[in-house]
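During the practical work, I worked with a single protein chain and the tokens that describe its fold, as given directly below.
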Amino acid sequence: MLKETGSLLEHFRIKQVFWGVAPYFLAQRESDVVEAELKERNLLGFPLDKIFLELKEAGTRDLMWKKVEAKSDGTIVIPPKKLLLGHTKEDAAVPLDSVCFMKEFFLDSKNGLVLPIKTNISAPLINPGATGPQTYEIYNVLDETITVNVHDLICVVDVYPLDYPVQCGAGRFKLQRRGEIELGNPYRK
């Protein structure tokens, strides 16, 4: 039973940390552009199956994403209803006795307001032992383009303690390296 005077954060020993956003991203390309490029390379003789086509095996994973960097003043334009992949500015080092969850929203560091950009609610799990910058999704929920300054974006992360530390953390896979977003499954060869 929760104490009436205590908060959920205190009861579950949850800590919150705040991470900045790095100034480099990957923007999802339009499916018709990807499909045309695959056909041009004779890698696709059928309509693009956006769910089941394994582009990594076709050697064309880079076709799905294009690199985007913030301007020199730190601003980035996010088109409406478009997905970007980004990194935290800070390197994470999640202990083996904790797990982290990124909140599905971003805060403006100037005024603390929630911005109209979201991250996938199921994607932001950060496993015990994870190290390095963390990848997250940014999605503009508006019907119009927005311009944000990456220096003003704050990613809120809840840190939950585990009852027992894990034996082998996620950090051994080294999927995320600074300046490059690695896609794929660490268990698949």
User: Anything to note?
Assistant: The first strand starts at residue 15 and ends at 28. The helical segments are 8-11, 31-40. Confidence is low (pLDDT under 50) at residues 1-6, 171-189.
